[in-house]
Specification:
Blueprint lengths: L7 E5 L8 H15 L4 E5 L6 H15 L1 H14 L6 E3 L5 H11 L6 E5 L9 H6 L3 E6 L3 H21 L6 E6 L9 H12 L36 H6 L2 H12 L2
Parallel strand pairs: 1-4, 1-5, 2-3, 2-4, 5-6
Helix pairs in contact: 2-3
Pfam family, one: CbiA
Organism: Flavobacterium qiangtangense
Protein name: ParA family protein
């Protein structure tokens, strides 16, 4: 009898590109795996770009070229005594089967598998993949196009996939990203009201806008934010309130 604990399947997903799906997958996976002691794996099913597979290759090259990052990485991996989390390239149509097979064969029990999925519901297999998630997190910004696209996507998940009953989804969670702390726009109030009327769950924590979300480690970098090999530096996490987001994220998934 297979008594191995099955991992949680989690996706940062949206129908709108450029809102931070891959970035949040990396940030949360790296925080959990390298800092919080969980074992994670990532399936990059965002065909054809597979940006996370490419990011890991760039991160490896950057660590080898940057003496500061090389020392940080050496210290980290000798302290935690485990390898970098795997990022596996796959297509959406049978990614659930591949993830289950990987978890069953893994030498160490996997706590969470993150999925970086395509940003369009027209992709073959995407609805099946989404239905196989336990938790879906969707970043939103105070932009009309982003909001319209996201609300349609989220209602599709709630009204079509979840109500049919053939799904593993326990929660769908919207959260504000790229919030400008210097700006008080009435749009936030309007969108909050609309989200409430639609009965959609909105996380309390908000991610403040930062150029760090668009930057990977550079040749002369002395700190790490977005990396597949190391967790984001704690001071940088606090600056954009990513620390509060991760705390709320962990409460939701109840690992």
């Amino acid at each position: 009898m297979d008594t191995k604990k099955k991992p949680l399947f989690i996706a940062f997903s949206s129908q709108k590109g450029g809102v931070g799906k891959s970035t949040f997958t990396t940030l949360v996976a790296s925080t959990m795996h390298y800092r919080l002691g969980y074992n994670v794996a990532v399936f990059d099913a965002d065909f054809p770009q597979h940006s996370l597979v490419k990011m890991k290759a760039r991160d490896l090259a950057m660590v080898m070229e940057n003496e500061t990052l090389k020392k940080l990485a050496y210290r980290q991996f000798t302290t935690i005594n485990k390898k970098a989390y795997p990022i596996l390239q796959h297509k959406a149509d049978n990614v659930l089967e591949a993830a289950n097979e990987f978890a069953a064969a893994a030498a160490v029990p996997i706590d969470v598998v993150f999925f970086d999925l395509p940003g369009t519901v027209n992709t073959p297999g995407i609805l099946k993949a989404l239905a196989g998630m336990h938790h879906v997190f969707t970043p939103i910004t105070a932009d009309r196009v982003v909001m319209e696209s996201t609300l349609i996507f989220t209602q599709l998940l709630q009204d079509v996939i979840m109500k049919k009953g053939e799904t593993s989804i326990k929660t769908i969670n919207l959260f504000w990203n790229q919030v400008d702390g210097r700006e008080s726009t009435p749009l936030y109030g309007v969108y909050h009201q609309l989200i409430e009327q639609l009965g959609l769950p909105l996380m309390q924590s908000q991610i403040k806008s930062s150029t760090r979300f668009r930057k990977e480690s550079e040749a002369d970098s002395r700190t790490v934010f977005r990396s597949t090999l190391m967790p984001p530096e704690e001071r940088l996490m606090k600056a954009c309130q990513l620390d509060l987001f991760v705390a709320e994220f962990l409460k939701i998934i109840q690992l």
